[in-house]
Amino acid sequence: MRKSISIIVLTVTVAFLTAFSVANVKPNKGYRIGDVVEDFSLQNIDGAMVSLADYKKAKGFIIIFTCNTCPYAVMYEDRIIALNKKYAHKGYPVIAIMPNNTSLMPGDSFDAMKQRALDKGFTFPYLIDSEQKVYPKFGATKTPHVFILQNRDQGHTLEYIGAIDDNYKDARAVKIKYVENAVDALLEGKAVKTTETKAIGCSIKV
Q1: What is the pLDDT averaged over residues 76-81?
Q2: How many other CB atoms are found less than 10 A from the CB of residue 156?
Q3: Model-wide pTM > 0.90
Q4: Which of 16, 27, 78, 184 has an alpha carbon 20 to 30 Å from 10's alpha carbon atom?
Q5: Which architecture does CATH list for 29-203?
C-alpha cells in the first residue's frame, strides 16, 4: 500500500514539474514572413562592427547563418560566394553570420573564421554572433539558414526563409534555386512565390 502511494506521489510530482517547466518555456519562433527585422551590430572578421544601416544603397539583404564546421555549410560555401557575386552589385549583398557557441565548436572561433574566409576568398562580411543574441531573433536553427530582406518604407521586411536550393549534395543537380528565385522576383518588383522552405543543415550549437 505504501509502495503504491509512493509511486502515485512520485508520478504526480514528475507530471507537475514537467507541466510547470513546459508552461514556463517561451520558445522563440523568430521573425515570420512580412515582419520588420530590427538592425543588429556584429563584429566582422576584419574587426569592424557591421550593421544593416551601413548599406545605404542596399535594396535588401541575403542573410545567411553559416559556420566553418558544418559539412552542409561547407558544401554551400561556393554557392554563397556565387550569390554575393551575382546579387551584391544589384543591391542584395550577402551577409554571413556565424551563430555557434565557440566553446563547444572551437573550429568556429573568430580566428578560425578569419582563416576560413581567407582560404575561400569570401567577398562578403562574415560576422560572429558571439553573444548568440541575433540568431534567436531570426529564428535560425540550422547552418546554413537563409533570410532574405527587402528594404521598404516600414523597414527591412522579411521576404524568404529557408534553404539556398533543393540539393545540398550537388550544385550541378539543383532543380530549384530558392534564393535566386526570390531575389529575382524582388528585383522585378514581384511577390516571392515560395516564401518558406525547410533549411537543411547542422543544428546551431548553444
Answers
A1: 97
A2: 22
A3: no
A4: 27
A5: 3-Layer(aba) Sandwich (3.40)
